[in-house]
Design brief:
alpha+beta; 52% helix; 27 helices
Length: 825
């Protein structure tokens, strides 16, 4: 149990101050007013710009944005949920701002966890350093994955609360678990929360086994009851984002395909190949011990390399960024380094920790590593993907190493706890020291002396690079030799480095054990060695050079000539196709325009299917024409047949960002009237016609919507015009002497968009696979589409009530626990 005596409070306060100082020391540029500039942060700012502007202008949440993929809900981009009253606590904890607050909270959270496990404060602080300074926590911040960093930070104290409730203090544990579960979910990175749940499942199975053996099921049941109650309100406090995301998921790439011809048609969730693209190579697991065993990060070699010398010889030093030290199996990565000393302590803990904690920590570690192998261990991956609920919703399977990043230092420091508390007899200690030193130090020394034991230093990407650069066989041989030398040197240097740190750490423990070193000194030496080991590797991935002085309102992407030309158009709504970037993997266009493309892991599935079957074909025709075109007029040749682009009102096409955009005169506008509806039998037939029908004159209508149309033939002599645009509200003027069928160049999403004719709610339907259509009466009318999902309001109401009850329960549990402890004292 955490001791709250005055002396302990002073110690805890001092340690907290040290954590703050360490966080600011690592991110020292923030003290100069600089900011961490990352790609994903820039992508997010561009993706969310329309949302920010709407929020500022209208004082409301749009909950929809047209700036990416022609339109999608903004739930997973940026949305404020005012019903969650735990948010002020979140803001208070994040007072130091990203990235300082992420590091500080990760330190503090793991410190709390180790205190729950009865570690002395200074040893717990050392363990917190070992966890928080693991390389992955810096790699994700360097990429701009801020929500992931916060979710990792809240994971440890949440688990600490559950363990505290089961084993020591039911009330205090439930209060701690409830608070940090609410914060964990509020961090809005469900993949990390899912992995935390996996840890708890493994722990729960183990705890149930030992509880049954000890005949303590009644106490376990009481703890479970309290935890279930407070967890219900913690989830309820976050019900709004969970509810909107849950209903949205079925319509996204994670919900399965609408086409029977797709490999995804029989499954819900992501495609296995897509989800396992980032799979850790089995041999690459050793980066936990030796960071550069696979060449380090997938970035260019430095100027001291043999490869650079060879490029100098060929006067091609500008190509250096293309030659990578990394030779693992992933498309690109940075090594997940747990720390040589931390891995040594993990193996030490295997011998020194009792069964109750040893086995669940080993099991969670092994499962994490094997699942991180992904497609390189497809049997287990497929088992989880096909049968474990929710697992198939997440991509980048190597991310599950966050579990090992949690369990490895925990087991290591539980072993040190037992050792430093005098619970280990000499024979057991010397055996543990010998084996842990032999395994970790021996492996490091083996690779240092015999680096070829790690592999042939050849990357699967080398051949493609050589072909791309047009190298002849002699040059290929020379570059292969240079890369071999550089990768071998990277491995040997880090292997010797890991060996040295392991020897120093083992020595400090040994000299303490034989009473040549005081305990405080031994812990201090371990803390400094671990910090030095991890800090210096972390700086490879996130260093001071990545910080810049930047105004608060600075644009994430500079405006191009094409952007300026397009922005002269005062029309309320049109779309832009940018062919100068990777259209569907780039959000820079969204910073200024309503883009056909974008970058997001949860785009609408129907839009993804249109990309694959319609938009890609249109884009390929334009790109093929552009290769031989000598004028803008020649570039326009394929546009009449670009059905998908035209029906999405793609008015401008950027080919050269520093030139004038191509104006698409065949874009069909915001809305238009068609002469007929062609009824189709399901998604397959509808998609098969998408490139061959006439979108200006007819609408493809799935027969499931046939009851919303009075007939299949209409008069298209009337007019319809968009007169007012907001992200969540579109207003049209319509005039026709007869009933008409209108097609709107807006994405169909039935859970929130409502249509009104002269203020009265009216039915609308899906046409052309993913657009909106509507039969309109004769005469003059005002048509309004408004996005106002019930799930958002219902979710906020439930969150508000749940938040109040959660905070009352936390306060009540904390007071009762304090009184109980005081009475016991």
């Amino acid at each position: 149990m955490i001791n709250l005596s005055k002396s302990k409070i002073s110690t805890y306060t001092l340690i907290t101050v040290i954590f703050i100082v360490l966080s600011y020391m690592y991110y020292s540029p923030v003290l100069e007013g600089k900011k961490l500039i990352t790609n994903d942060t820039s992508v997010w700012k561009a993706s969310a710009k329309e949302i920010f502007e709407h929020r500022e202008k209208y004082g409301e949440e749009p909950l929809w944005t047209n700036s990416m993929f022609s339109g999608m809900p903004s739930y997973q981009i940026s949305a404020n949920y005012k019903g969650n009253l735990v948010k002020p606590v979140q803001k208070l904890l994040q007072i130091f701002k990203i990235p300082v607050s992420a590091l500080f909270l990760t330190l503090l959270g793991f410190f709390i966890l180790l205190l729950v496990f009865d570690l002395k404060p200074w040893l717990a602080a050392t363990g917190a350093i070992a966890y928080a300074f693991g390389s992955y926590n810096f790699i994700i911040l360097a990429a701009g994955h801020n929500t992931k960093a916060y979710a990792i930070a809240y994971m440890a104290p949440m688990i600490a609360g559950i363990i505290l409730s089961f084993r020591k203090n039911r009330l205090a544990g439930a209060a701690l678990a409830g608070l940090f579960l609410a914060l964990e979910i509020a961090a809005n990175h469900l993949q990390i929360t899912y992995y935390a749940l996996l840890i708890l499942i493994v722990f729960g199975i183990s705890e149930l086994w030992f509880t049954i053996k000890e005949s303590q099921l009644l106490n376990l049941s009481k703890s479970l009851g309290l935890l279930a109650a407070i967890a219900l309100f913690a989830v309820g406090a976050n019900f709004a984002p969970l509810y909107t995301t849950m209903e949205y998921t079925d319509y996204t790439m994670r919900g399965g395909s609408n086409l029977s011809t797709s490999e995804l048609s029989a499954q819900t969730g992501l495609d296995k190949e897509y989800a396992t693209r980032w799979s850790l190579g089995t041999g690459e697991t050793l980066t936990l011990l030796i960071p550069n065993i696979r060449g380090g990060a997938s970035e260019g070699l430095d100027r001291d390399s043999e490869t650079f010398s060879l490029l100098q010889k060929y006067q091609a030093t500008q190509l250096l960024p293309y030659f990578h030290g990394y030779w693992g199996k992933q498309p690109g990565t940075s090594p997940v380094y747990a720390g040589a000393i931390v891995i040594f302590l993990f193996f030490l803990g295997l011998f020194l920790v009792d069964k109750r904690d040893r086995w669940w920590l080993i099991a969670a570690t092994v499962i994490s590593i094997m699942l991180a192998w992904g497609k390189n261990f497809m049997g287990l991956t497929s088992l989880f993907f096909d049968y474990f609920p929710g697992y198939n919703k997440f991509r980048a399977v190597s991310m599950i190493l966050v579990i090992a990043g949690f369990t490895i230092p925990l087991l290591g420091f539980l072993g040190l706890r037992n050792l430093f508390q005098g619970k280990i007899e000499p024979k057991k200690f010397y055996m543990a020291l010998k084996w842990s030193l032999g395994i970790t130090g021996g492996l490091s020394l083996l690779f240092a002396l015999f680096p070829a034991a790690a592999g042939n230093f050849s990357s699967p990407n080398d051949s493609a690079l050589f072909a791309q650069l047009g190298l002849n066989p002699e040059m290929i041989s020379q570059f292969e030799s240079a890369l071999f030398t550089d990768r071998k040197a990277l491995l040997q240097t880090d292997a010797f480095r890991s060996f040295a740190f392991i020897i120093l750490a083992a020595g400090s423990i040994y000299f303490w054990y034989i009473k040549k070193l005081k305990l405080n000194y031994a812990i201090g030496i371990l803390a400094l060695l671990i910090l030095l080991d991890l800090w210096t590797v972390d700086k490879r991935f996130l260093n001071n050079e990545m910080f810049r002085t930047q105004p608060e309102n600075a644009e994430p992407y500079p405006m191009t000539t094409a952007d300026r030309e397009i922005l002269k158009d005062s029309s309320p709504n049109y779309r832009v196709l940018n062919l100068s970037v990777s259209t569907f993997n780039d959000a820079s266009t969204s910073n200024y325009h309503k883009s056909i493309g974008g970058y997001h892991g949860a785009k609408l599935q129907r839009y993804q299917e249109l990309i694959m079957n319609g938009l890609s074909a249109d884009i390929n025709r334009i790109m093929s024409t552009a290769q031989n075109a000598s004028s803008m007029e020649q570039l326009k040749a394929p546009l009449p047949g670009c059905n998908s682009l035209n029906m999405l009102n793609t008015k401008y096409i950027i080919i050269n960002p520093e030139g004038a955009p191509l104006v698409n005169e065949y874009a069909l506008g915001n809305a238009w009237l068609v002469k007929s509806a062609r009824f189709v039998n399901g998604a397959d037939e509808e998609m098969s016609l998408i490139n061959s029908f006439n979108p200006g004159g007819e609408a493809l209508v799935d027969k499931q919507f046939s009851d919303l149309l009075s007939n299949s033939e209409f008069d298209s002599q009337g007019s319809i015009e968009l007169i007012s645009y907001k992200a969540n509200e579109l207003v049209y003027n319509y005039n026709s002497p007869t009933r008409s069928l209108a097609v709107f160049s807006e994405i169909y999403y039935p859970l929130g968009w409502e249509a009104y004719i002269d203020g009265e709610r009216s039915d609308y339907l899906r046409v052309n696979y993913l657009l909106r259509g509507m039969e309109l009466p004769e005469g003059k009318h005002e048509i309004i589409f408004r996005f106002d999902p019930d799930s958002y309001h219902t979710g906020n109401n439930i969150a508000f009530v749940s938040s109040i009850l959660l905070l009352l329960l936390i306060a009540g549990f904390a007071v009762l626990s304090f009184k109980k402890n005081r009475k016991t004292a």
